[in-house]
Specification:
globular, 3 domains, 23 strands, binds adenosine monophosphate, five-stranded parallel beta sheet, Rossmann fold, alpha+beta, six-stranded antiparallel beta sheet, 14 helices, binds glycine, Dna Ligase, domain 1
Amino acid sequence: MTILLIGSGAREHAIARALDRSSQNKSIYCLASNMNPGIAELCVEITIDNFNDPELVSSYASEIGATLTIIGPENPLAEGVADALWNNGVKVVGPKKTLAQIETSKSFTRDLLTEYNIPACPKYKTFLALDGVAEFLSNLEEDYVIKYDGLAGGKGVKVAGDHLNSHEEALAYCRELVDRGGKFVIEEKLIGQEFSLMSFCDGETLKHMPAVQDHKRAYEGDIGPNTGGMGTYSDADHSLPFLTDENIIQAHEINNATAKALKDKFGDGYKGILYGGFMTTADGVKLIEYNARLGDPEAMNVLSLLESDFIAICQGIVDETLDKVDVQFADQATVCKYAVPKGYPDNPIKGEPIDISNIENLERLFYASVDFKDGQLVEAGSRTVAVVGTANTISKAEKIAEKEISAVEGPLFHRNDIGTDELVQKRVQHMESLR
Ligand code: AMP
Ligand code: GLY
C-alpha cells in the first residue's frame, strides 16, 4: 500500500513511526515543509513543497499512486486538501473543509454544540462589530476571553487577567479585530485545569485515546508567551491525576455527541482525529476548543503507547469500519519535552547547529523544526526536537525525558518542570480547592 503523509514536524515523525511499526506491506511518501531526517529515514521519498495547495497534493498523490493519505497539520485541512484527494479517489485521514470548521471557526463550534444541546459551552456571543460588546463584557465582569474567529496560530485568543487587564483593553482588542474585518467570539473564562482528549473517528464510531495535559506557556511555572506546546504528560491509567472518572466519561460523551452532530448536520461523517481541548471545572468538563487533527506534542505521547496496528486504524477510519478495529494503548505513563531555540517563540534564533549524539536512546527522539546546513543539523526556528520518556509512573517518565532532553546540545531551552511531582501535585491541589 502506498501512503502519503502530509507534514514534517515531530507529530508527523510520530505518525511515520507508527505507520512503520505496522506489519502491513507499505511504502510511505511525505510532503514536507522542512527536511525532517527522522521521517526521511522511514520514507521512500520526502519532498519539500506547498502541501496546503489542494491541486498540488492531489496530483502528487496520483503520481506516487497513493491510496491513503494522512494529514498531520491544520492548514491543509482548512484549505480543502482532503476534499481534493477524495475527489481524486484517494482516501484521507483528516476531515473535509466543511467538517474541519470544528477547528477553523470558534463560532461554528460553539453554535454546533448549542444547536445539538451538548452541555459543554461557557456563556458566549459572536460579534462582527462593536455593538453590544461593552454590555456583554459587563455581564461577564472580570471573567472573559476574546477569540478571533479563525485560525491564528494560537495568537488570536486573549484571556482576561493574562493578556487583557481592563474592559478598555478588551474593547481595544475587539476594535482591532473589527478593523481587520474579523468576526470574533467573547466568552466566559473557565477556571480549572486543561486537558486534551483525542478520538479516532470514522464518522460513526469513536475510539478514544488516553488523556494528555499540554503546557502552552514558554517558561517554567506557566509564565511567558503562549507557544505551540512545550511538553505534555499522560498517566498509566489513561486518565490524569487531577481528573475524576466522571470527567473522562464526560469528555468521551462530548466527543461522541459532537461527531454525531456533525454527521447529522452535514450528512457526511467526520473522518479523522477529533481532538477536544477541555477544561475540567468545579461544574464538570467544558469544551475550550476543538482541533481537527492530532495534537503536537500530544501525538508523541499517545502514539508512543499505541499497541495496535496504526495502518489498520487508519483503514478503519476511512472505510467506516472502526468498530471492528482493535485500538489498545499500553498501560504506561509518558512525558514529552520539547527543546526550542533561544528566543522562541517571539525572536527565535535560526540556523545554529545542534548536537544530539549524547541522547541515550534515539527511539525516544522526535525531530521537528530542523534543517541541514553544510551537512550539519541546525535549528530551523520553531520547536526543534522532542523526547518522550515512558515508564509506569509520570514521575519516572519525567526523569527519563528530562535526562534525554538535557543531552541535546546547542542554543536551546526546555521546561524543567513538565511532569515533575511538584507540578503535577499543584494541578491536583488546584482542582481539590475548586471542587
Ligand atoms: P484556543 O486557541 O481556543 O485553544 O485558546 C488558547 C488558550 O486560551 C487555551 O489553551 C486556554 O488556555 C485559553 N482559553 C481559551 N478559551 C478559554 C476559556 N473560555 N476559559 C479559559 N481559558 C480559555
Ligand atoms: N498541543 C496543542 C495543539 O496541538 O494545538
